[in-house]
Fold these 2 entries.
Entry 1:
Amino acid sequence: MDLKRTIREKIATSIMLVFTGLSCVLLFVMIFALYFRSRPILFIKPIQDLLFGTVWAPSRGEFGFFPFIIGTLWVTLVSVAIAVPLCLLSSIYLSEYAGARIREWTKTPIDLLAGLPSVVYGVWGLLVVVPVIKDYIAPLFGSFSTGYCVLAAGIVLAIMIFPVIIHISVEVMGYVPREIREASLALGATRWQTVKYVIIRKALPGIIAGFMLGLSRAFGETMAVLMVAGNVPRIPKSVFQPVYTLPALIANNYGEMLSIPLYDSALLLASFILLLVVLIFNIISRLFLSRIERSIR
Amino acid sequence: MDFRKIEENFFKVLMIFSTLIIFASLFWILIIVAIKGIPAMNLAMITQAPKGGFYLGKEGGILNAIIGSLLVASGSTLLALILSLPIVLYINVYLTKKSRLAMFTRFSLDVLWGIPSIVYGAFGFSIMLFFGLRASLLGGIITVALLIIPIMSRAMDEVMQMVPIELISASYSLGANRLETALKVVARQALPGVLTAVLIAFGRGIGDAASVIFTAGYTDSISFSLFRPVATLPLAIFYQLGTPFPEVQARAHASSLILTIIIMLISIASRYLTKKFKSFVVK
């Protein structure tokens, strides 16, 4: 009887250890697999031609990723520029000014916002953001736009990354010890001065980590961007011009990629680039956050 | 008037304004989805598969995609649960808080969480080519499972870390070994959290499009076979919007309303279940 328990324990332990080990190596397997599949094109074309080439014509064997890389950066930066000030102010409000009841109440909408599928964001973008830009915002700045543009993608993405940024910012501001806050108030500082000189300074690494996680989320977002960005492989000159991002490129072309030589390899190279960029941002921000977590324990 | 007071009030107004914008955007999205979706909604949408000429505006519904999405999401949630429960129990019961392996596992799960779903799609597609699989329900289930394992395990991990050490010690002192403690004490104590994690992962699985576009494919017929392509709701919405016909686009709006309702139901269910199962937890 006791032997049976011991054997069961032994077997279970090794199974659990194997699964845990697998979860640790999955990342490396992904990196290796995507690299392995993108090798054919890396052998034939020099990497700088791929990264900085501006002509995208797979049927003629030309694979210049530059417009897509710049396009992805444009869209990401616009979304971060919109999301950062709004999220920062809102997180400060939720963490420092709002009462416990408001904070509790706001959790549900933020969770819902995080849970909405990206296609739904895309549908909203098509129905609201695209026409508004076409009819009102672009003419306001004296330019013509179809509405499918950098700005549309940026606005939709900004809303998608609100929950990520707010969640982390509110959490790290909550880590700031109460005594420090009270000391600042006792010295006669106003609430805003306490926020400005104490809280923000203390929570800055965590807030930056939150921004970076939001940024990497925006960088890799596919469907919503695919639906509203216009998808023209040219470097945009203003926010009202259409744009084609790396994730949209991958998702849009999987159908034809097996019929043109090197096309599948090029698309997997695109996902490899995407993985590396997102990985760097994620690792840095997670290191920031785990250091903060350790310092409060 | 005092400058500091003006500054204080100025920023306070700004903060409330930003918070309102953020919450208004959620309601704006929900309201638009409802307004555009309700007129195009009819019974055929949820009881029929697409018939001939569906994408030209003829009859049919998206039952194929609803069933397909439920199959992909439940299959992958089950697979992810089978794979992540041992991981989470291992790092919480078998390893100590300061263990290197536990810390590294948490770290890599966090990083995996941040990887975009299109990358999972490309990775899943590469694996499928390697094993000679075509776009199929099985491919979709495996890929989505990989996508939701980090979400599920970290959510379960959060609650298991809260299980008091005294409870675990009590279990050991009664003669239970680590496996028994893990399954009968820690897993049960964390049950509400496990349920929430499962539902969050299910919601993510049902709503994700970029990972299934390569791996699950698409079909207009209702299919239950593991080795045949299946339709999914997000892709159904995407393809219907891609047609130039207003009737088909209207159906896409109805489909996104259906998807949104499913997501809301999952969210409500998770809140309700968490509350209900709290009563089994030792405080």
Note: Chain A touches chain B through 83 residues (CB under 8 Å).
Entry 2:
Amino acid sequence: MIGKIYDWLDHRTGIKKLVTDKLEYPIPDHVNFFYCFGGLSFFIILLQVVSGFVMLFYYTPTPEKALESVNYLSTEVPYGWLIRNMHRWAATLLVAMIFFHITSVFLHRAFRNPRELNWLSGLLMGLVVILFSVTGVILPWDWKSYWDLTIWADFIGTWPFFGHALRDLLLVNFAVGRSFVIHVWALPLVTIILLWVHFKMVKKHGISGPL
Amino acid sequence: MGMKNRKFWPHHVLKSGFLMLVVLAVIVTLSYY
């Protein structure tokens, strides 16, 4: 019965070839535990997408309502506290996973020719994750968010030449509303593009050699 | 080198699936407390 449905679907979509391409390529035998961190990072990113999407239903991106809506999610919505905590802890673990992934790739010397662009796209995604956490912390707009933004603004203000201008730009423009747009629209879009490039090149060059 | 080059499915999918479950369990446990 399932085979029949599968055949029916395959006749119309060619899904069998797709599944075969994705699942049946051989992986070298030297692959071990230390090769898992990239995949686990991606898994956590998927968790972040799901938990973030759920929170979108409840969050209000205005300075007056942000904290109220976050508190409502944490106290009134069934399992809202779990979703929010998972988003927060997964973010922390994502940074750890990325750190292990970068370390592993570095020690395997997998950043060398022909994988330089893969290394570069990965580092860019690391930067994007930092921007994700900076904008994400601001969103609840509680005291921690306020002082986080203040600390970042002060720090950027110490940079030479354009520091002051950048700080003012940040303080004027980077409150809850725009952080929200960057956190929920701009950065995910950049991440999708970089991930696509990253994965395409992993497939193209294959898994790097053993230590 | 006498490598078998096992296919992605099921060997690596099951192994990495197990690791994903572990990561999920860690996240849920941390979130619970």
Note: The mean pLDDT of chain B is 86.
